[in-house]
Amino acid sequence: MAEGGRKVVIGVDESSFAEEAFNFYAENFLKEDDVIILVHTPERYNFVDASPAVIQELLNEIKKKLKVLEEKYQEKLKAYNVKTAKFVSKEGEAGEAIVAIAEREKANLIVTGTRGMGKLRRTFLGSVSDYVIHHAKCPVLVCRK
Amino acid sequence: MAEGGRKVVIGVDESSFAEEAFNFYAENFLKEDDVIILVHTPERYNFVDASPAVIQELLNEIKKKLKVLEEKYQEKLKAYNVKTAKFVSKEGEAGEAIVAIAEREKANLIVTGTRGMGKLRRTFLGSVSDYVIHHAKCPVLVCRK
């Protein structure tokens, strides 16, 4: 496939759904020379009547959360012996960010989790997965428990 | 995962979409002890004012088409060195048949193609893929060109 291995885009956040999707990919799909691109979309906030100090505190918290997330996935990448990986943070809607980065990187696969569970699963897939499945130009692996 | 290897359900028909999905799985996901279950849903017909001879002829044609399909996939399974596979023909809607068999077999993955192409792809995924993604209890690999 792609020169230097397949390119695999995986959307990650703090949820267990993202982690399970990553694990399923790593245990079932991962090949030695795969290049993994972890895409993260920062949460968005509305600041109404907030002081600069409060805003600064929140920004620090966001940075801290992102660092924790990166460290968590760095450890997972190491545990699964992934040689080449990068962490991309892109603002905007998660689904759009994942599809845009997959196109830019000419990805061979997108891995996405789903929040759909229990009875709800039958009708509700999760807007991120749904967007990705309908807009991606490459194959998509939809993971669930 | 599953005893004796992962169980992978793949929906197949005469289309190139199904074949490309099978190829993507085989080239990117297949492991030596995977058990492949190929699910086929026969087309349905309405007989209005048809003679027994015409019906018999049509049935023979359907059987012949199914045989050609089976032979094609037997060859592909052989080419990819798949050890364990079976061919299941189940009447009904293709999506429902695939999900039902995946549940019965406790599949670890469902592989499905999509008919969505060009501009239409952005809104139209194909009813079979859409049903499978929303109803499957296991991960789903959605393949496209």
Automatic annotation (TrEMBL), chains A, B:
<feature type="domain" description="UspA">
    <location>
        <begin position="6"/>
        <end position="144"/>
    </location>
</feature>
<dbReference type="InterPro" id="IPR014729">
    <property type="entry name" value="Rossmann-like_a/b/a_fold"/>
</dbReference>
<dbReference type="InterPro" id="IPR006015">
    <property type="entry name" value="Universal_stress_UspA"/>
</dbReference>
<keyword id="KW-0175">Coiled coil</keyword>
<dbReference type="Pfam" id="PF00582">
    <property type="entry name" value="Usp"/>
</dbReference>
<feature type="coiled-coil region">
    <location>
        <begin position="55"/>
        <end position="83"/>
    </location>
</feature>
<dbReference type="InterPro" id="IPR006016">
    <property type="entry name" value="UspA"/>
</dbReference>
<protein>
    <recommendedName>
        <fullName>UspA domain-containing protein</fullName>
    </recommendedName>
</protein>
